[in-house]
Amino acid sequence: MIDDQMLAAAFQQAKAADRPHIPPMAAILARAEYTREVRKRKQFTTAVRMVSALSAALSVLLIVLAPSSFPLPMSMATVLLLAGGGVATIWGLEPARLPRLS
Amino acid sequence: MPEADFGAWYESTYPRLWSWVRRVVGDANVASDIAQDAFVRLLESGRDSLPEEERAPYLFTIARNLMRDHWKRGARDHESWTGEALGDVTAPGIHDVAKAIDLDRALGALTPKERSIAWLAYAEGWDHRTIGRIVGVGEKSVKVLLYRARKNLVRLLGGRP
Fold it and tell me: Which chain B residues contact residue A29 at CB under 8 A?
């Protein structure tokens, strides 16, 4: 009859027999730092995109509803915000590959 | 948490996590990927400074979620796992290898949740409450699943239940 102690011993032996390759801790730390940076960029890009989209929508609305009173500075601000959104999008794009862990 | 302390904990915990994940998913390469991802996510979350008794269960919980994601992606039918060759695992002696193979085969006949709970109970020695938190089930369910897993393991390893 196999009891709990024998089972526990079998599991402990199996665990002790495992010899997995342990990746260097520096690689794990680097990858964590990298993903943190990617997330930060994504958050920033999302925020800039939202501001750009809102600004563009507001400008279009103003042009449609009151074309004669559409203020020039506002349209310039929209163009600037859209351009900023584009730059932020390119900057925030995630690189194609994560660092390899070996 | 100082890097040296984390390094020592990492060196001792990585093999424990890998062994558990490998027994649950049945694939050494997937186990390596999940174990690495779990550590990365632990560091990202900033919970690496948790007290030792909470940090390891938290890490194992991350790994459990990653295993669930792995199965959701349909990379492998986890219900049909029947065990694998020991692959990149090398054992110190032939008798230990034979025992490990027997245990792995027996574990392969259990459901993923049963072998997960059995490993956490017998290999890690964690209590029902901690196991329940990691696996995402209640304490009573852990007792039932562990009883079932134990009964099946005893039968499969050749002892009379």
Answer: 3, 43
